[in-house]
């Protein structure tokens, strides 16, 4: 199959910014990795997204945009358009992309009631892409989760089919586990034969980031420095690990804020120092990944870590200690921790245009392999 240049756009649960990546792909393999960049959200933009997520909690209609949601969607769409314009200006070859994959921003994920909500105006972004110099002849693909959820799947994770394509080019022993450490953590198990096995494992950065923002005003524990200086409350950790989600068989997926109330009730963070609170929450992220290993077909022989948490040496050290399997940052095997999800949505967009599956019974629990997405030609 012919390869095409494709741009992927991702705004993840960590709410740090718009990731843009260019790849060359036919939707089954990656022929070449192009440039990538992250365009951070301003503090006011991030605050608006936080408010939108809070106000999305009672939604039952995935198209509704009450309150801050409408404002956040307009802002998010504008920031994605600006990001692509900056990216094309810095990398003129990106203007030749024939496909753009747009994830939007997940503000609510409730697959148990067949509901997942990603804000982002496809038509508005299409106009911005044309202004940025893309098209004619290019196609925007967005709303990539909805078809899976409508068919009875979890709608997440969607990146595993990209992980499986990446695994073909790695010199690592199989089975290999891809570990995405965004706001939520998820794993993809690849053995080189069957469809990938994937599911969300628990919180990754979201609880840590929210705690740091509340206690310090900074939205991240940079390089895990606070956690490294703190002491883990093992009793609190045991209480948190008793949550039934962690032993639940997949398929399973999470909303960014699923454990917020549970942790507030059981972790005793209010009485802890910043360092001890960060250490306990970081240990929770590592321990919940470890709890996922018995749910896999076999024990992985290697782990490739990506996402923002892959830059947290304290979290990586805790993971290595609890998993008993080497944990390798994506960069060490020639991949990009920061660009991987944006690259994945470029890959998924190409697959969607070709009618290829984005999700599988083993990744989201959808009854049969499922394609998806809505496309807009950039005429």
TrEMBL record:
Write down the InterPro entries for this protein, in alphabetical order.
Anhydro_N_Ac-Mur_kinase (IPR005338), ATPase_NBD (IPR043129)
SUPFAM superfamilies from the UniProt entry: Actin-like ATPase domain (SSF53067)
Q: Which reaction does it catalyse?
A: 1,6-anhydro-N-acetyl-beta-muramate + ATP + H2O = N-acetyl-D-muramate 6-phosphate + ADP + H(+)
So, what pathway does this thing act in?
A: Cell wall biogenesis; peptidoglycan recycling; Amino-sugar metabolism; 1,6-anhydro-N-acetylmuramate degradation
Any single Pfam family the record assigns to this protein: AnmK
Q: Sorted alphabetically, which keywords does the UniProt record give?
A: ATP-binding, Carbohydrate metabolism, Kinase, Nucleotide-binding, Transferase
Q: What is its EC number?
A: 2.7.1.170
**What NCBIfam families does the annotation carry?**
PRK09585.1-5
Family membership: Belongs to the anhydro-N-acetylmuramic acid kinase family.
HAMAP family found in the cross-reference section: AnhMurNAc_kinase
| Function as written in the Swiss-Prot or TrEMBL entry | Catalyzes the specific phosphorylation of 1,6-anhydro-N-acetylmuramic acid (anhMurNAc) with the simultaneous cleavage of the 1,6-anhydro ring, generating MurNAc-6-P. Is required for the utilization of anhMurNAc either imported from the medium or derived from its own cell wall murein, and thus plays a role in cell wall recycling.
Recorded protein name is Anhydro-N-acetylmuramic acid kinase
- Protein source organism: Ancylobacter oerskovii
Q: Give the encoding gene's name.
A: anmK
């Amino acid at each position: 199959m012919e390869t095409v240049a494709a741009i992927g756009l991702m705004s993840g649960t960590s709410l740090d910014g718009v990731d843009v990546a260019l790849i060359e792909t036919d939707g089954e393999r990656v022929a070449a990795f192009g440039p990538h960049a992250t365009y951070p959200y301003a503090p006011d933009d991030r605050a608006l997204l936080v408010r939108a997520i809070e106000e999305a909690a009672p939604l039952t209609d995935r198209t509704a945009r009450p309150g801050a949601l409408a404002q956040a969607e307009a802002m998010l769409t504008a920031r994605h358009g600006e990001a692509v314009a900056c990216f094309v200006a810095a990398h003129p070859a990106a203007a030749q992309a024939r496909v753009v994959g747009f994830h939007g921003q997940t503000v609510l994920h409730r697959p148990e009631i067949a509901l997942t909500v990603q804000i982002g105006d496809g038509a508005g972004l299409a106009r911005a892409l044309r202004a940025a110099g893309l098209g004619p002849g290019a196609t925007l693909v967005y709303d990539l989760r909805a078809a899976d959820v409508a068919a009875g799947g979890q709608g997440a994770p969607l990146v595993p089919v990209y992980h499986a394509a990446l695994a073909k080019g790695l010199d690592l022993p199989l089975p290999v586990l891809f570990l995405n450490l965004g706001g939520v953590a998820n794993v993809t198990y690849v053995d080189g034969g069957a469809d990938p096995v994937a599911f969300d494992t628990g919180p990754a950065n979201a609880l840590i980031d929210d705690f740091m923002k509340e206690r310090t005003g900074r939205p991240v524990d940079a390089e895990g420095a606070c956690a490294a200086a703190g002491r883990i409350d093992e009793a609190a950790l045991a209480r948190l690990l008793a949550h039934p989600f962690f032993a639940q068989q997949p398929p399973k997926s999470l909303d960014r804020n699923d454990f917020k109330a549970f942790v507030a009730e059981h972790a005793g963070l209010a009485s802890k120092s910043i360092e001890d609170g960060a250490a306990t929450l970081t240990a929770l992220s590592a321990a919940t990944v470890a709890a996922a290993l018995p749910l896999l077909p076999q024990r992985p022989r290697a782990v490739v870590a990506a996402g923002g948490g892959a830059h947290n040496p304290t979290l990586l050290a805790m993971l290595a200690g609890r998993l008993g399997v080497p944990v390798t940052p994506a960069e060490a095997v020639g991949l990009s921790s920061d660009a991987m999800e944006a690259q994945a949505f470029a890959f998924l967009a190409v697959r969607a245009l070709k009618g290829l599956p984005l999700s599988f019974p083993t990744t989201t629990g959808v009854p049969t392999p499922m394609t998806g997405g809505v496309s807009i030609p950039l005429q």
